[in-house]
Recover the amino acids of this structure.
């Protein structure tokens, strides 16, 4: 038997031709998105800004639940902190766009002590605990009259920019945060932390038994999600110019995040982006329908949970065995070599 015949029939790969092509397409798309404010109208820029903010929320919740197994219904705590952190910094003389970046960082920093509390909880207790934290932060803002209290407040610092320039700068900052957060999640998933997180998601006790640092790994992801949701909150404020605690700390944000990830595909990188596009299209078309709009969202989520539990992209990955980005490893059949010789042919031409 030759060495070629001893080669395994399958090989483990991270990069494939498909993933390389997809990566190039994503880079080109990112460059095109950067140029959109140069040649598109203010209305299109604002709509794309809203879509990117929605996508940030989906990516962050999927990172928590899809890769870390932490089903949170309280990420609006950090959305609100990002928005009101921006108000606080601008009131103290910080320029608005720098204030948004600082507010996102502060939200991530606050996520550290919050994680010390909520990561002690499991399952439904964790979900309820995160919701209680969000309500507590909302109440603290309501009783603080310096940031408008319960009546809300406006972001006056952006008045120094013209309407079109404001739309452009807000869009570029939103795109920056979107690309940064997607890159951070991508890098995390390709690292040892990513493998540890998925092991924790599948079986936390077993992961701990083989030496995975459960709390430390989950804390990294929790703080990253806090930072991302804080950035989304600051950008929501910049896009609407007004914020009130009952809205920005509202549990509807968690409902939207769960919907996007459930529809797009929990635990997939591309799925939340698909879910964000679907949610934004539904909001754009049916948001004025009142209660029927919410009923429709709920019915759609239930239908996906029952009949398409892996979501759109999860089902595509399973059925067609496709992976656009080189996050995990793939078992791929080895290409046949022209030098390999079938065993039956070894004795060809030799007499008995």
């Amino acid at each position: 038997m030759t060495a070629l015949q001893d080669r395994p029939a399958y090989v483990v790969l991270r990069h494939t031709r498909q993933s390389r092509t997809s990566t190039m397409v994503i880079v080109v798309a990112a460059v095109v998105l950067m140029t959109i404010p140069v040649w598109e109208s203010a209305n299109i820029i604002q709509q794309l800004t809203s879509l990117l903010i929605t996508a940030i929320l989906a990516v962050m919740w999927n990172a928590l639940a899809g890769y870390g197994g932490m089903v949170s219904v309280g990420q609006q705590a950090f959305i609100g902190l990002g928005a009101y952190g921006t108000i606080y910094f601008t009131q103290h003389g910080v320029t608005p766009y720098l204030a948004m970046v600082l507010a996102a960082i502060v939200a991530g920093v606050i996520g550290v002590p919050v994680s010390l509390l909520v990561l002690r909880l499991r399952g439904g207790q964790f979900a309820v605990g995160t919701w209680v934290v969000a309500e507590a932060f909302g109440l603290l803002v309501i009783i603080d009259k310096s940031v408008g209290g319960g009546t809300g407040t406006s972001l006056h610092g952006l008045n120094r920019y013209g309407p079109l320039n404001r739309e452009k700068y807000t869009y570029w900052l939103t795109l920056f945060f979107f690309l940064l957060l997607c890159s951070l999640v991508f890098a995390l998933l390709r690292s040892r932390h990513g493998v540890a997180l998925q092991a924790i998601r599948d079986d936390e006790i077993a992961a701990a038994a083989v030496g995975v640092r459960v709390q430390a790994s989950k804390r990294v992801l929790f703080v990253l999600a806090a930072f991302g949701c804080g950035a989304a909150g600051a950008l929501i404020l910049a896009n609407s110019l007004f914020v009130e605690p009952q809205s920005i700390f509202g549990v509807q944000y968690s409902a939207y995040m769960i919907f996007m990830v459930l529809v797009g595909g929990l635990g997939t990188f591309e799925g939340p982006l698909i879910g964000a596009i679907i949610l934004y299209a539904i909001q754009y078309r049916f948001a004025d329908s009142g209660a029927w709009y919410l009923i429709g969202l709920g019915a759609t989520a239930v239908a996906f949970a029952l009949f398409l539990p892996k979501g759109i992209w999860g089902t595509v990955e399973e059925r067609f065995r496709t992976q656009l980005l080189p996050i995990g490893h793939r078992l791929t059949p080895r290409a046949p070599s022209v030098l390999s010789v079938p065993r039956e042919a070894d004795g060809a031409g030799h007499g008995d």
Notes: The first helix runs from residue 17 to 39. Confidence is low (pLDDT under 50) at residues 337-352. The chain has one domain: 10-337.
